[in-house]
Design a protein that fits this description.
With 106 residues, the protein is an all-beta fold. The chain is built from no helices and eight strands. The chain has a single domain, classed as Thrombin, subunit H, CATH 2.40.10.270. The chain has a six-stranded antiparallel β-barrel with strand order 1-2-5-8-7-6.
């Protein structure tokens, strides 16, 4: 169960869809589907050494209330950065979803 007072972060869920312009041209664009409140799950930083270089993974964990519109193929915008969902863990007993997000480098 998530206490209402801990839902202080806003997550925008987006999905790539075909959008038709006024002239009739169809193009793929990221479309905002909905905004959801979330609580952040505390975690430690994750470092990886690859080819003798140290990399820091920008991973975040959030807990949200279950929403039928959510799926693991969507992109999440948080603090003007886009994140892909790497883990989508539903907890049926308390109607929550724990999301693990990884930053998308642009």
């Amino acid at each position: 169960m998530i206490a209402a007072g801990t839902l202080i972060y806003s997550l925008k869920f987006k999905e790539q869809q075909n959008v038709q312009s006024d002239s009739g041209a169809v193009s793929k664009q990221m479309v905002e589907l909905f905004v959801c409140k979330a609580s952040k799950v505390k975690q430690l930083g994750k470092f990886l050494i690859d080819a003798k270089e140290l990399f820091h993974f920008n991973e975040l964990k959030f807990r949200v209330r279950n929403n039928k519109l959510m799926n693991e193929l969507q992109v999440v915008e948080y603090e003007k950065n886009d994140y892909r969902i790497t883990s989508f863990d539903k907890n049926i007993s308390d109607n929550t979803i724990e999301l693990t997000l990884e930053k998308i480098n642009k």
